[in-house]
Amino acid sequence: MKDDDTDPLFIEALEWLARMQDDQVSASERARFAEWISASPAHADAYERAEQLWDRFEIVKPEYQRLRRSRALSRRSVVLGGLAALAAAGGYWALPAGLLADHVTDIGERRAFALPDGSAVELGSYSALSVLYTDGERRLILHRGQAFFTVAADTARPFVVEAAAGTIQALGTRFDVKFSERDVTVTVIEHSVRVTPSGSVPVTVEEGWQVSYDPRGATSPRPIDVEAVQAWRRDRIVFEDVPLRRVLRELERYRRGKIILMDDTVGDIPVTAIFDTKEANGALAVIAETLPVRVVDAAGFVAIVSRR
């Protein structure tokens, strides 16, 4: 039997549970649910497990009800979001980050869309974003990946992006946020933003500057080539004297297989290059040709990089 967090049938059962919790569920949806649950004993078993999981989390139900009434959660994320938040705190069960998102991109995909207030978002490869708008705030959660934001003016409702252990508040702006493992990098293209890492004082970042933060705190703002930062929006990634380990980590976002660095000493080799994001395997071939490393690609599932 698969673990619950990777069992597609269990995830489907959770989504049905989310729909059935909605007091505006239609009669046709109830009929489709009845058809789904009666189609197989496995469906009924998965739904029972989903209900049991929800019943374990009585403590979050009042908050779930509040969010549902305010429509701060999309219907799909109502139950899934509540479960994931508490499960993470209790260490019981964790959903993949992207599962909770309102907007998701696949590996190598870019997607642009408008938000309800007229703001615009462009999501990069393998990214996930949730939209939690209320009457008093426009909050978005970047679960993973990269996003470019063009913010519509609304002084009554702050525009806040949450990424890892920190927030980025727009001060009338266009800006880029990249969430890679534990690190978040914020680049301001126009105007400024206020970056607040958890447990740290806010940092105002101006146009043409960049700051990064992780659980330990934030770096000092630094000037940056904003065109290079935005290259991913044109299916390019630009590296200038970037350590190989960071290059490989970035390329991994654009291919389906893992990239494993076997020799940490070669990870410090500086790389200056421009790669096509749609040709990540070709980028690995160029790295193997130009650097003292060997790349063994096992049928696209995993690429092993070692010293040559």
From TrEMBL:
Q: Give start and end of each FecR protein domain.
A: 102-193
Q: Which InterPro entries match?
A: FecR (IPR006860), FecR_N (IPR032623), Ferrdict_sens_TM (IPR012373)
Say if the entry is tagged with keyword Hydrolase. no
Where are the bilayer-spanning segments?
A: 77-95
Task: Decide whether keyword Membrane is in the record.
Answer: yes
Q: Which UniProt keywords apply?
A: Membrane, Transmembrane, Transmembrane helix
Q: Which residues form the FecR N-terminal domain?
A: 12-53
Q: Which Gene3D superfamilies match?
A: 2.60.120.1440, 3.55.50.30
Secretion signal span: none
- Tell me one GO molecular function of this protein: sigma factor antagonist activity
Q: What is this protein called?
A: Iron dicitrate transport regulator FecR
